[in-house]
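_Full entry_
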Amino acid sequence: MSPNIEPIPFGACNCSTLRKASRHLSQLYDAALAPSGLKSTQAAIMMEVERRKDDPPTMHELAKALVLEQSTVGQNLRPLERDGLIALKQDAADRRRRHVTVTEAGRAKLAMVLPLWAGAQKRFEDFLGSKEAAELRATMLKVAYEFSPASEDDSG
């Protein structure tokens, strides 16, 4: 005889609700960025690398900053490198480490992407409100970093 399990009320699962919202938000940004040929994940990676151009991140540092597995970052970097948008440069002091940089072609692509991204950003903020969108980002960053594997490693 199976135990009597109470069903979870519709919409009460935080994980399921966040995933639904995330999928639709990704679709919004991917559709907006489509003319550039980049997906939102690729654009986010390139923007993070360009933001850190004065101290280019290693793949490990980039994965940590983006709260992604290093293998996922590597999978996303391959087509960007193939297309000449990013470059992986060996560290002079430690040849095992490679730093990620945005190329000139990558900067030109980002110049195309930014207005498209801004359009998606505006559409979302027009829907939700600028203040509410900022609060949501802050909350989601808190969740992302609180429950990341790195935070679990740091606790013990």
Notes: The first helix runs from residue 14 to 33. The radius of gyration is 19 Å.
